[in-house]
Amino acid sequence: MIRFILVVIVLLGFLILGSPLLVVEWLIGKKNPDLKSRSSLAIVKWAFRMITRVTGTKVIAIGEERIPTDTAVLYVGNHRSYFDVVLTYLRVPRLTGYIAKKEMLRYPLLKNWMRNLHCLFLDRDDIKEGLKIILAAVEKVKSGISITVFPEGTRNTVPDTLLPFRDGSFKIAEKGNVPIIPMSIVNSAAIFEDHLPFMKKATVIIEYGEPIYMKDLDKETRKNIGKYVGSIILDTYMKNKQMLDELTASDSPRAQ
């Protein structure tokens, strides 16, 4: 419970005490929007780094060298925890917006920082508005800003499974002509969701797969792109889960 309280203190402290920074960022954006985006990313990364330290989370990152540095990308990941955003945002090499549910707009200050970071807010029940968000994301990647999506549509509560990936979000890569980066996240729910309301130390493995270019895929694969990318992520997930289980077993007192 102590970790949970400390995370709440860090988060609320950042949002409240950092609110003057939003004014500064707004002023910077009037003259230099790119500088505003980069400085907002640096500030939020600092806050997320503090939260990660408080929770005692260790991250094993694999395959970061596979992420192209000369273009925006579409990150596609599985989703089990609120910490998926915290942990993956810390590793993005360039400006990156996340597609979030519209309910996030309820939270003052937080939504302002999200907008500064080019996040987009999706109404999952409105197809027409959803299309507008996809088109807005296409423009983002065309301008050099990467986008992250969790195509399951919500946090999956069943361990070691994936909900069906929705194909619509992959239009961002197709229309924006950017690569898809499969992103497998293992054990993030062990930080918080697996034992609410407590937070515990955990080791999380994030692996970035080889870039996938829609134009290089055959017609049938493009038609079932969600299933195709989902299978890559699930295979990687199961491989890394086994590796994590072996690491955990070797570190246990009985194994010493």
**Helical segment count:** 9
- Multimeric state: single chain
The structure class reads alpha/beta
Strand order of the largest sheet: 1-7-6-2-5-3-4
Overall pLDDT level:
94
What is the overall shape?
globular
Q: How would a textbook summarize the main sheet?
A: 7 strands, mixed
Q: Can you characterise this structure?
A:
- The chain is built from 9 helices and 7 strands.
- Helix 2 runs antiparallel to helix 3 (33-55).
- The longest helix is centred in the last third of the chain and has 27 residues, at 225-251.
- The protein has 256 residues and is α/β, with parallel strands linked by helices.
Secondary structure elements and pairings:
Layout: H1 2-17, H2 19-31, H3 33-55, E1 58-62, E2 74-77, H4 83-89, E3 96-101, H5 110-116, E4 120-122, H6 127-142, E5 146-149, H7 171-176, E6 180-186, E7 203-208, H8 219-223, H9 225-251
Helix pairs in contact: 1-3, 2-3
List keywords for this structure.
single chain, 256 residues, alpha/beta, seven-stranded mixed sheet, 9 helices, globular
Task: Give a short overview.
By secondary structure, this protein is α/β, with parallel strands linked by helices. The protein is built from nine helices and seven strands.
